[in-house]
Amino acid sequence: AGSKSDKFVDRMAALPAMAAGVEALTLLGDGAFAVTTLDAEGVIQDLFGERAHDRIVLEALPLLRALALPPERLDPLLEAALGSGHDPALRAAANVVAASLLETLPSK
């Protein structure tokens, strides 16, 4: 089954490939498929759920930008940023990512 550090390395290594795949699908006009697929696999929830890690959250920023999720889909990220049950380093990383994503949202 692999150690916890092996899984961390695997998760870190997968992020750039996922971001590149989403960008490619978006360029082909199928960005919604990428969002649906990653959502079905629980990737977003996994990034910010109980197995979240501050370094992975920070490295996920290009992926999250490529996904261009609507604000209501950012709830797991905001829960990680604001949740008192999370590690302070994770909360700080989630705050950085949330602020960066919120800056790119179109104003109403």
How would you summarize the topology of this molecule?
Layout: H1 4-27, H2 31-40, H3 43-48, H4 54-59, H5 61-67, H6 75-82, H7 88-104
Provide mean pLDDT, rounded: 80
Shape call: globular
Distance between the termini: 48 Å
The counted number of beta strands is 0
Strand content: under 5%
Total DSSP helices: 7
Major β-sheet profile: none
Q: What is the string of helix and strand elements?
A: HHHHHHH
Unreliable segments of 5+ consecutive residues: none
> What proportion of the residues is helical, as a percent range?
over 70%
What class do helices, strands and sheet pairing give?
Answer: mainly alpha
- Measured on Cα atoms, how large is the radius of gyration? 14 Å
Textual characterization of the structure:
72% of the residues lie in helices and 0% in strands. The chain is mainly α. Helix 1 (4-27) packs antiparallel against helix 2, helix 1 (4-27) runs parallel beside helix 5 (61-67) and helix 6 (75-82) packs across helix 7 (88-104). The mean pLDDT is 80.
List its traits:
single chain, 108 residues, mainly alpha, 72% helix
